[in-house]
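Example 5.3 — Oxidoreductase
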Amino acid sequence: MSGPIGIGVIGVGVISDTYLENLGSFPDVEVLIVGDLLLDRAESQAKKHNIPAHGSAADVLAHPGVQVVVNLTIPAAHIEVSSAAIAAGKHVWSEKPIGLDRDGAAQLLKDAAAKGLRVGQAPDTVLGPGFQSAKRAIQAGVIGEPMFASTTFQTVGPDLWHPDPAFLFANGAGPLLDMGPYYFTGLVSLLGSVDRVAAVGRKKLEERVIRSGPKAGETFPVEVPTSLQVIAGFESGAQSASLLSFDSALERHGVFEIHGTEGSIIIPDPNMFEGRIQYVKAQTKLADGDWGGQEFIDIEQEGVVTGRGLGLLDMVRAIAEDRPHVATGELGYHVLDVMLSAQESAASGEFLKVASSISAPVPTVPVDFDPFASTL
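Solution (predicted structure tokens):
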């Protein structure tokens, strides 16, 4: 590969604005064409972001200059679109999750490997300087050996603000598969492969009401649990507890804590690329009844802040440098396996073994990684 690398985007819904703005600022890549089922929407996004061509998904796959396809379609279409890109000889970067079933995702990775093509997988927030600065501090031993983690995402639900939220409550979504990828990708990036999971889940309502936009007042069915508690055991011996809910009157997002043998660290929201990082050491003495006097120590965030598309850029550079990229399809598959196992555990009431694992630790992003440099 020599840059800038040609990019084609399939699916130009709401999230595409962020991708197209960021990719347009990276010198190592160039978006050549966008495609969508709605051709007028593709045309509108092409004009808005000064992209030279637009059309259908087939037009993107046929474009001779496209080396990497960015798959921003709905989750139910991820495997189909990514597989078509691999069949067309293109590398793939896909929004989360990698797919909705293990067999389809596994076949996608097998087909890509057979053709010598890369699959990159969102979320790429784990490449952001917030998460990476915290990860480097953990690797440096600031909290000792990581023992257990606690994560929380709870909200009243996206039906409050999303103009068409039914798909977020359908099979293949809910808080587990919609928000879970951010938290479990972060946990696996820090603690390694998950070995087993147990979960409980429930719904608050069988039907929800859209509360904003042109469909306000319409109802839709809820197909999946909307509150889940997930316990995970890791091959390393670490463990985690995660709450994911669309049912909470109390809004609490982005809680991500790792507790080790020598201290605890608070990591930024895994849905963000930056944030405050703090750690605390265990108290060595305590007067009777004197709680709450711990000293929190800030960790400096190092690195350039960007946004979605950072993982794609890392993958493109990794191909050119013949090194592993950070947000791999293998990582995305393992996270999917963890979430589906949690979903199955909630249905069965049993602790379940997670069959997959990652073959190597997730790489750390160098402090001097500069998205705005021309390197290819």
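Remark. The chain has two domains: 5-125+308-328+345-353, 129-299.
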